[in-house]
Batch of 2 targets.
Target 1
Amino acid sequence: MKSSVIYAITIGLLIGAATVTAFLYTSSTTDFVTESLEKARTSLDRGEKTEELAALVDSWEEKKKYLMFIINHRDIENVSVSLIKAKQRAEGGEFDEAIKEIEIATFLVNELTEKERLVMENVF
Amino acid sequence: MGKRQVGELQPSELVVAIMISDLATIPMSDSAIPLANGIIPILTLIASEIVASICALKSPKIRKILTGAPSVIIRNGKIDRKEMSKNRYNLEDLAEALRMKDYFSFDDVYMAILETNGTLSVIPKSPKRTPTAEELNLPENQETLPFVLIADGKVYPKHLKEAGVNEDWLKKELKKRDIKNVKEVFLMTVNSNGQIGVQKRE
């Protein structure tokens, strides 16, 4: 009996720890991405080319390797596609289009965190 | 929850087992879904099942809710129709369950209880019951489990000790049976009456 209680508590703690860790990692990654996207957008708004997006795409490729353990791969791929589109548009001088893609990317990235949040909408 | 076969599982335990297998297939069937999305729900189900088992162990009320209560289908030799319809148990089901217990006539049964796992426990009428050693005034000879001393060529020293014998005794017995090496033996057992069973490897 005692061992069963210990198993149940251990499993509960593991689940709790895994959930919290996953959420914190996702949250910190998305914060970093949205911050970089904001900086890039500010430069593009001023009509200046920016290296921010290229650096962000490279960072995202690294970070997504760990996010793939906790987030649906399709959601991650949507963000990747959006970032690459934004980068391509910015490099091609299509700043308005790049800004639109940045807005889409920001929305998708924030959605990743919202989906991991422990709220009633996600439970049901 | 414990060491039980599938046929003896409670309905809630069977449901949890089926749910766990379904959850396990989700990340396996779609590579876009991370493994954690299957493992965490499975662990949650296991933990909740353990908690439910502990609660059922401690509280008769919770046990009744989770597993139900046994029903007396035959009482004093009479079939209780009310209990049968309450359990959606028909006469064919009852006859089949009784036959599986080696009772081929309803008249042989004094009491039949439908357990929570669906099996039927039967108390036969006294004249139909197998007499016990006590009733036949037979000398008492308490049997215990036979000990497996050798299995597939391997000696079990722990079982030798429990049986109260040693390796020298073992070698002597094998020699009596013209067996030179332990590896020639597939199975060797000894029961509480000292009877030895040996089967050689072919």
Target 2
Amino acid sequence: MKDLRRFLTRLKNLVTRRRDDERLEEEIEEHIALQTAENVKAGLPPAEARRQAMLKFGAVEAIKEEYRDQTGLPFVESLLYDTRYALRRLRKSPSFTVTVVLTLALGIGATTSIFTLFYDVLLKSLTVANPGELYRLGKEARCCYWGGYSQENEYSLVSYDLYKHFRDHTQGFAELAAFQASDPLFGVQRSGGTASAQSYPGEFVSGNYFAMFGISAYAGRLLTSTDDQSGAPPVAVMSYRLWQQYGSDPSIVGSVFHIDNTPFAIVGIAPPSFFGDTLRSDPPDLFLALNSERLMPQADAGDLNQADQYWLDLIGRIRPGAESAAIEAQMRVELKQWLLSHQSEMSANDRAKLSEQTLFLRPGGSGITSMRAEYEHWLQILMMVSAFVLLIVCANVANLMFVRGMQRRRETSLSVALGAHTSRLVRQALTESILLSLAGGMAGLIVAFAGTHLILLFAFPSARGVGGLPIHASPSMPVLLFAFCVSLVAAVAFGVAPSWMTTRVDPIEALRGVSRSTARTGALPRKMLVVFQAALSLVLLAASGLLTTAVHRLENQRFGFLQQQRTIVRIDPGLVDYQPNQFTILYDRIRASLSTIPGVAAAAICQYSPLSGNNWASSVWLDGRPAPGPDADKVENMVYWDRVTPTYFSAIGTQIIEGRGISEEDTATSQHVAVINEAFAKKYFNNENPIGQYFGRPELGSSRNYKIVGVVQDACYLDFDFDKPIVPFFFLAEAQHDVVAKTGADSNPGSHRLHDIILVARPGATVSAAEIRQAIISVDPRLPIESIGTLGEQVSNQFRQQRLIAKLSSFFGMLSLVLASIGLYGVTSYNVGQRTTEIGVCFALGATPAQVAVLVIRRALALVAVGLALGFPVALAAGKFLGSQLYGLDPYDPAATLLAILTLSFSTLVAAFIPALRASRISPSEALRAE
Amino acid sequence: MKRKADVPQGTLALMILKTLDVLGPLHGYGIARRIEQISRDVLAVNQGTLYPVLLKLEQEGSIVSEYGPSENNRRARFYRLTREGRKQLQAELRDWEQTAGIIGRFFELKAEDLS
């Protein structure tokens, strides 16, 4: 209380600049007068009396100083003075100030925005209650369907039957929920509305899904176990984002929506923070109960009741105190029991593999992480790059601060000579460093905000559905703070060190020697900083060169199809209630209708166009050879296939090498045919002629399903595995339906639901989206058109991440180059300033300006050469690492490395040239006269 | 040579408060003289050091100052104890006596007292 009162009085004095000097003067005068009077009374002569009085009073100046300190707040006062002084000094050298602030801003901002992304994608938990209690099935994310009674390596997907088995027997879980592993698009239409169906991603989830996550409804209610029973009225929960899309209309809750033409009542809205079980760029907008799956009209519905169709992921919340290891062990036993109970339905292969079937539980607080798997490598590379940049930034700031401090040595020595305290001088330097860092930190915050936004925009430009990426564009504060602190430490340490070093020296010596001496105190750390920067810059430049070349090569590789003049129109006939046998007629009419558009050269339809992100696979059984063994359903034995309409190959621009493509003569009743690619021919027929041979698919129970009528050029269809040669592939005719030998049923009706129309425009002609829509509406207005885009876009989207990484690392490389040049410039020009006298002597002794300039530049180049020598092996190692991450990257690309070295040397020359020029213009007489 | 004791920080403040308590309003010189008299010159303070302490006490609200005529009819600043100052003095006096009592008992300590 007392202290507070005192503090407030002093603060008031500080603010009002009140000085009690006069009052004290007056009191002292009075005091001495009284004492003198007393002394006189005691018999001393007046002069002596006054002298004695003053002696008794003590050191007047010291008391005055103490008094003054008591009046205000001396610490705050000198802080204010220091700040004002530092600001004035910074204003006087704007180029230094701007350089340091910009350097800090870029370093802090870039590191923070990259790490924000890294953190959000890789480290963050789902926004659910107590994510630490959640465990998921499976070590790796596996997509999206699996059949039979064995899974490779681990059981990570389950069927509905297996889910119920686990749910009912595993006591350690408080709740165990299942949900669809894939994220299909549903055609959604509000009942009574006039708008055509829109597609939105959604998924089937078990009734306890929301209860397991521990989240509650934003509006209405969420799904419960009663909704997930056979015969329960079909209900759905809508995402907050889709609800916003409908104008946040409160009457949505309780209204009926047609989802894939099936009426569902919307019972509630999920909370805004909930993005589903998986971190991905197109989170589900609709949640339907698992048991509703049997109501859906999809041609291939019925997954629910098949015990050996695995299409569900599992996440459970364990009971408090339960051990995940114990639960895992128990679930393994349960899996064995379940498999044994299904032994009668198993194939011989599955039975053979029964003993090796196992499963794993993993912490599930961050959900099933497909996006994580996809982006992990890239983010790690980016993280490393930005850590490098932060290091360079620190080195640069340190260097600049150090040079500045060294330039102040004379001033500092003078202050010491005049009696300034070391602490005060160090505090001055400290104030300046902190001010600079603060300004840099503020600017860094702005860069971080802008950078995070920009990177998100680049990385995820568009997503299906309402989207709404579950990543926030606000930079993560802990990282910002971290980057700020690191650079603050660098700036402060190197800002204060010169002042401190100078105060250690005897001021007279320092003053005498400061401008004449050639001894360069602190030259070594500065040189090391430049060497370090040059080395790091080389690594970054070389790496970004490698990445850019690799991405260029990827984009211009031989794809096996043509991109020019080709448009992909994505439709979903599965959302309209066609019978399987009506599809062929529909496709013929669409092709005919599109062909009437002026400028259209050809139109064909396929299940999945190249690099569209999906393809079906199966194993094959060649006629005349033994049936495939237990290894047939291993990934490396899988053959991918696609279903296409006539004229497909000419439309997509894939060459037919032998035989013919799928044509109009392949009808429902004619011989079932297949066209294979070169890889297929090479793997299964080697030197034989494949034309006219037969093959089948084991799951259809025949080796003579298809007659091979043609071989086409290898083309790149799969959007993953760029690092592997093109896999065997076959194409089937849309008009021909596969039949299971035993039952006579259509085995894959879903494969006739073709998604992609390929439209080829005549050279020079363009076809507008409106014309395409009109042509399709004229065939069937109910048919939803999901998207219209060029094939070129579809291809380049595949390399978006790679391009982003290459762009960002080029940016960082350039940044580091600029920073290193600045650092070098600072050191060189400081050295020139230091050696003015020496250079003057050289001139006086007859050196030419060119000789002097060469002297300066040679020193700078020598530093950078050391840096290059150190950086070279690191750059090689980095290239090797990148080569292991990105297909098509040559780790020993001499062009990229050479270019990096040349760029760095060139900017060294530029950075050293200006100080060299200055040195060559030094007039010898002035230099010798200068102190 | 007479040995001079250092004046511990805070003791001086206490002495000032007590002096003002007993003698009523005084100017700086008066306070210095009384302290000198009472301590019989043992505490030969640099008299000037009194003034920063007076300022501190004033800032804390223990004393207030106002102008008044001095003995030689000049304008002088007189310090007066406030009610708060009196309270502070009493509190510190109690503390002091307590501390002095404890220390005193220790100084009188003999071995047999603890047996």
